[in-house]
Amino acid sequence: MQRKKDFKINLKDLKLKIEKEIDKNDNKILVLVEKNILNIIFDNLDYKKHFRKNQIYFNMSLWVNIYGKNKKKFKSDGEIIHNFVKKLIDCKFVHKNSKNYPKNQNIFCINPLSQSFLYSNLDDYDRIVDIRDSLIKKLNEFSLFNHKELNLEFEIDLFIYFKLFSIVKINNTSLQHLKRENIIYAGDKVIFVTKENTIEGFTPIHTIIFDDTTSRIIKQVFPKEINIIFDASNFIFTKSYNFYYLRMKKFCEMHSINEKITNSIIELEYQLNSTPLNLTLMKSTKFPRLSLFELEKLYPNSVNNNLLAIEKANQEVYRNFNQANKDISQENFDDEVDDELDLKTELKFKFDVYEKLTEIVKVPDEKKSITQYIINWRKFMLIQKNEADRLEAIYSYLNFLFYKYENKEINQRTLKNYLQISFDYCFDILVKSVSKEEALKSIYEKLKNSNLNPRVQNKYLSRILFFFDKQHEFKTKMINSVVNYNRSIVFKDELRELVEKLLNEDSKLYKGKILIYRRSVFAIIAYYSGLRKGELYSRETRDFFYIDGRNFYINVNKNGIKKINSYNQNITISLKNSNAIRAFEFKISDKKLFKIVKDYYELLVDRKIAFLFPDENNGIALKDKVMKIDKINRINSILQDITKRYTVIHSFRHSYVTNEIKNLIQKKDKRNEDIYDLIARVGHEDPETSISHYAHVDLIKIMKI
Q1: Is this entry keyworded Ubl conjugation (predicted)?
Q2: How far, in Å, CA of 518 to CA of 616, rounded?
Q3: Is residue 531 part of a domain?
Q4: Is residue 509 located within the same domain as residue 657?
Q5: What is the DSSP code (8-state) at residue 426?
Q6: Going along 188-252, which residue ranges are E strands?
Q7: CA–CA gap between residue 262 and residue 674 (Å, rounded)
Q8: What's residue 105's pLDDT?
């Protein structure tokens, strides 16, 4: 990182060069607008955050900051600004990995219009809605006492409805696993639970929460009493996927409709009757999944015992893998792998090299050219080889495929097929993910929600799993648990019970209030602020203070971290990324929990204790040392005893984001910047990480917000 003085000199020279480039435009009005935009941008650049390799680097927090100060101008000139930044990137004034300013204001709105407005053919709107309504009427008139042929007709109609007219889409693989016994009634919502085959003790379970219209249809056709009348263990769809898919194609031909356009029309109708944000929630596919134990807590006796037993067994498999290398007595700071990291730093990754590597899928059609093709690519990989680079495992696998071809174990067509699958459904995701575990989740999500036939999905998946097994020694059982385990949030009554247990446990060990309250306060602040474990643990008392009402302020910085690392050689604490440095207010809504935190804070200030969570010696709180992390880690096991689910300290962060997004939806006076205010508090750069990894959307759907 360069010094501030050098930065200012370079920035001045860079600005002059950009202005010369702007002056080349004959449109003098546009020249004035672009120079004005340039001045605004340069006034907001920070030499630590916005300069990389002699180029300007724009991140999303910069745009949010500029937008907040210049809302009127940046709102009216959005497309001009976007094109201007694109030109700066093309001219190499701005780093190519920078975040561009959005063309429109959708990105600054928590309630954007969906693409259905762009793709819908409005001439077909009434006709498609009528076709849908006729199908719904037919489904509602169906009787389970019909004979076999009529039952099959019902299965076909239900398949067509799910594929064409349901807002919530069921992926092709899950359709094969739907059973009557796995229908759950949660208030006015109907939930399908799909159960896949058990592999080495782990059984993937997925929940599908339907919109109100689909829920009403399912309630009509499959009432609660269904299990008494029929063998509920039967699959709802008794034929192969292709059988139903071909009949759906005939249905489309008969009614002169197209699957994509039909889906868009139905989405358009849904958001016209609801909101675009609700549509986004109903359609979301990537987010932490609903745990059956969470569902059972919210709706007691709704989940059958067999499913709960499977979920419990899965929990043990996941717990064993997740904690296999973690000794709770050790000073361990590992959070879950679902958080945002500084990708460039973590991966030491050459994106330009990978872009070149993607051309390897162009296998020559002529056999005589393949030998030279393999020689050229092996030479390329040898030159670029770097063991610190994520491409190393990919190089190894590509060489493995080349050897298979040379030994005539696979032919030219198969080689091309394997390469295409690997890049489209694995490598493109792997190189951009913060961890192999996170990559696996995204790969599964992309495959399962593709329109591929389930048989083809499984074929592709087997190739990808082979890669992870061969190159990363990820066995199927581990992959299954990482990808499919349903994590959980912590509910407020469980937090209160946790605090009660911690106070009871610590009051038996200590006499002073600081030491008795210490762990309870940690849990309360973690729940209401969403801070990561290491961030909260390393706070000094001066980083935290009471404002008024039930509001507190917390400042996340490196000061406490440096002090801890300087005197304790057994642990190393660090912040996840540059966005982790932040300061914000938060509110503790529970009156009793608020009082515990406020009383604790006043005691720390009164006794001039340096750290927010001090260590102790012979029952006396030390002024300049932080408590042992193993005492904090002990909270995990106590929390799981209370919730009976896999909940850890990191679950407080999931709870915080989920509750805040729920509040955001309920809020009447929504502001465009609300979602960015949230991600700033959480310490992320963009909303995708917050929503896809932390917002438990299924819970929000069934909590009647």
Answers
A1: no
A2: 11
A3: yes
A4: yes
A5: I
A6: 189-195, 205-209
A7: 33
A8: 45
498 shares a domain with 444? no
Write the secondary structure of 598-613 as one string of H (helix), E (strand) and C (coil): HHHHHHHHHCCCCECC
- Residues 205 and 253 grouped into a single domain: yes
- Structure tokens that stand for 668 in this block: 């009447």
Question: Do 229 and 292 share a domain, yes or no?
Answer: yes
Contact 629, 326 (CB under 8 A): no
CA dihedral sign of residues 279, 283, 289, 294? positive
Nearest to 275 by CA among 226, 211, 321: 211
In this predicted structure, what is the pLDDT of residue 495?
Answer: 97
Per DSSP, the three-state class of 256 is coil
Q: Is residue 324 part of a domain?
A: no
Cα–Cα dist 607/616, whole Å: 14
| % of the chain beyond a pLDDT of 70 | 79
Q: Which of 65, 84, 108 is the last residue of a domain?
A: 108
Kind plus residue range of the DSSP H or E element containing 378:
helix 367-384
Q: Whole-angstrom Cα distance, residue 684 to residue 503?
A: 33
- Report pLDDT for 368: 83
H or E element at residue 214? helix 212-221
Q: What is the pTM of this model?
A: 0.71
Is 157 within 8 Å of 250 (Cβ atoms)?
A: no
CATH no. for residue 548?
A: 1.10.443.10
- Our CA dihedral for 626, 627, 629, 633, rounded to 10 degrees, sits at -140
CA distance 66 to 64: 6
Q: Do residues 207 and 266 touch, judged by C-beta distance below 8 A?
A: no
Backbone Cα Rg of the chain = 28
- Per the structure, the complete domain to which residue 356 belongs is given by 343-484
Question: Do 60 and 87 fall within a single domain?
Answer: yes
* 607 Cβ neighbours under 8 A, 6+ residues apart: 514, 621, 623
Q: Using CA atoms, how far apart are residues 72 and 83, in angstroms rounded to an integer?
A: 18
Query: Are 480 and 497 contained in the same domain?
Result: no
Please state, in angstroms and rounded to a whole number, the distance separating the CA atoms of residues 628 and 522.
13
Write b or e for each residue in 690-704: b if 16 or more Cβ atoms lie within 10 A of its Cβ, otherwise e: bbbbbbbbbbbbbee
Residue 444: which residues within 8 A CB-CB, separation 6 or more? 461, 483, 484
- Predicted local distance difference test score (pLDDT) of residue 554: 95
**pLDDT tens figures, 65-74:** 787 777 767 7
Provide the mean pLDDT of the chain: 80
DSSP, collapsed to helix, strand or coil, labels residue 514 as helix
Domains in the chain, number? 4
122 alpha-carbon distance from chain centroid: 33
Give the N- to C-terminal CA distance of the chain in Å, as an integer: 47
Final residue before a domain boundary, out of 484, 513, 534 = 484
Q: Tell me whether strands 620-626 and 189-195 are parallel, antiparallel or unpaired.
A: unpaired
For residue 671, the model assigns a pLDDT of 64
Q: Which of 418, 421, 423 is nearest to 401 (CA)?
A: 418
**What are the mean pLDDT values of the chain's consecutive 10-residue runs (705 residues total)?**
62 86 83 87 80 76 75 71 84 79 48 49 82 90 65 89 87 77 82 77 80 82 56 73 92 92 84 67 69 88 87 78 48 52 45 81 87 90 66 85 89 90 85 70 73 75 77 57 67 96 96 95 97 93 93 93 82 79 93 96 95 94 91 92 90 92 77 76 78 82 67
Q: What is the pLDDT of residue 698?
A: 83
Whether residue 354 contacts residue 431, with contact meaning beta carbons closer than 8 Å, is answered with yes
Query: Are 253 and 210 part of one and the same domain?
Result: yes
